[in-house]
Specification:
Layout (H helix, E strand, L loop, with lengths): L12 H12 L39 E6 L5 H5 L1 H10 L4 E6 L4 H10 L17 H4 L7 E6 L2 E6 L6 H10 L30 E5 L8 E7 L4 E9 L1 H12 L10 E4 L16 H8 L1 E8 L4 H16 L1 E17 L12 E2 H9 L7 E3 L6 E2 L7 H10 L2 E17 L2
Parallel strand pairs: 1-2, 8-14, 10-12
Antiparallel strand pairs: 1-3, 3-4, 5-9, 6-7, 7-9, 10-14, 11-13
Helix pairs in contact: 7-9
């Protein structure tokens, strides 16, 4: 492209790590984050869900202890409790999993009931916590702190709580896992790459995963030299593509059925647990960091298309959004309602949006008025959803229809 000098940089991750450590990562000095191998103070674990007072941590000194931080609004956390209970039973005498919530006993009891989980659990479930949340600060849940022989052995995401990790830690007395740190400070305003051109030109570059940064998309305007910098840090391919295309056109929720990958190595683009067990490990291996500078006068759509072209070149693919015929579910008006209008409190548009997030069903299309309301309840299949909709005078129809899909094709 005339007047544009593009630099596609393939830089080793070693470079990324060194640059990040030296120039962009700033420790959170005021936050006393736990360190691997650090001894843990012997404290009472606090009030339990059953109303009793818990024991001291030293009561579990022979066990591997996992503090599983959760909240009443974390559906994944609550859904994992049966799995937690089963793991503890399987490793009785070796493993103690302690769910920890800062919320009250009443709030957590109600949340468990809503999720269909009994509250009479054989778990030391800590509520009203004021100790562990201070000792092991975090911003997101699930958040796991692994304690072995009274010391911090690991701090991880929730997916690492499984038999493989437990066995490795019990057998080897130590384990090396990615550390979950919700308090990383990374200066995203500093360019990822040196400025190779003057302000009248554009450059773009791709490097690897940056250890000390979170996933982030951003735009930085420099009015002094008339440039704009688009960047993405620690992102995998598909979310990056959807981010760019979403700036150029309105996209539906990109569930798996809307993604068509015509490439040999699909595992670069979609996490396959049969190949890489943990999604976090897969993200580290397959994430990239990218930046592109352009003239401030360039249109947003042109900037995004240029990024898409860079990504296509990097992955050796062609991508586009096309219309393809595929199975869908459609919500339409139906027979007269069987419930009183006073019970119809949910907007159909809101319900349809949330229901479409369920990756187990085909794309869900709403064809009724945006102000139409309905009675919403539980459902788990086409039949149960259709029956629920019928109560509100609606119907669910399964049909094949041309709809928007993301197509990725490998270049020769």
């Amino acid at each position: 492209m005339k007047g544009i000098y593009k630099l596609m940089c393939m830089v080793m991750v070693v470079y990324c790590s060194v640059r990040t450590a030296v120039a962009q990562h700033k420790a959170v000095e005021e936050m006393d984050l736990p360190k691997i191998g650090q001894a843990v103070e012997d404290l009472h674990i606090g009030t339990l869900l059953n109303g009793r007072q818990g024991q001291k941590l030293s009561a579990y000194k022979k066990d591997l202890v996992v503090l599983d931080f959760m909240t009443s609004t974390c559906t994944n956390c609550l859904a994992s409790i049966p799995k937690i209970k089963k793991l503890q039973e399987s490793y009785s005498g070796q493993l103690k999993i302690i769910p920890v919530a800062y919320e009250s006993r009443q709030i957590m009891t109600e949340a468990l009931k809503r999720s269909g989980t009994p509250d009479n659990l054989s778990l030391d479930f800590v509520v009203d916590d004021t100790v562990f949340n201070r000792m092991f600060p975090h911003r997101t849940v699930p958040h796991l702190v692994w304690l072995y022989k009274g010391k911090v052995a690991a701090v991880t995401y929730g997916e690492y709580l499984n038999e493989k990790v437990i066995e490795e830690l019990l057998n080897n007395k130590t384990i090396d896992l990615p550390i979950k740190n919700d308090y990383l400070e990374f200066d995203y305003t500093i360019p990822l790459l040196p400025r190779y051109t003057d302000s009248t030109r554009s450059y773009s570059g791709i490097i690897g995963y940056l250890e000390d940064a979170d996933t982030k998309f951003g735009v930085q305007v420099d009015s002094s030299d008339g440039t704009i910098r688009d960047y993405a840090v620690n992102v995998t391919a598909l979310p990056f593509y959807f981010y760019c295309y979403g700036k150029m056109q309105k996209l539906p929720f990109m569930k798996p059925s809307r993604i068509k990958l015509m490439v040999r190595d699909k595992d670069r683009f979609i996490h396959n647990p049969d190949v890489e067990l943990f999604e976090e490990d897969w993200k580290i291996k397959n994430s990239i960091s990218y930046e592109r500078t352009a003239r401030l006068t360039d249109r947003s759509a042109d900037r995004m298309m240029a990024i898409v072209q860079d990504l296509d070149s990097w992955y050796n693919v062609r991508t586009s959004f096309v219309k393809q015929k595929m199975p869908v579910w459609v919500i339409r008006e139906g027979e007269p309602a069987t419930v009183d209008t006073a019970q119809m409190r949910s907007f159909v548009s809101d319900f349809a949006f949330m229901a479409d997030l369920n990756v187990a069903i085909p794309p869900l299309i709403n064809e009724v008025d945006k102000n139409r309301k309905m009675h919403a309840g539980k459902w788990d299949s086409f039949e149960s959803l259709n029956n629920m909709l019928r109560q509100s005078g609606l119907q669910l129809v399964a049909e094949d229809r041309e709809t928007t899909v993301f197509l990725m094709e490998e270049r020769p």
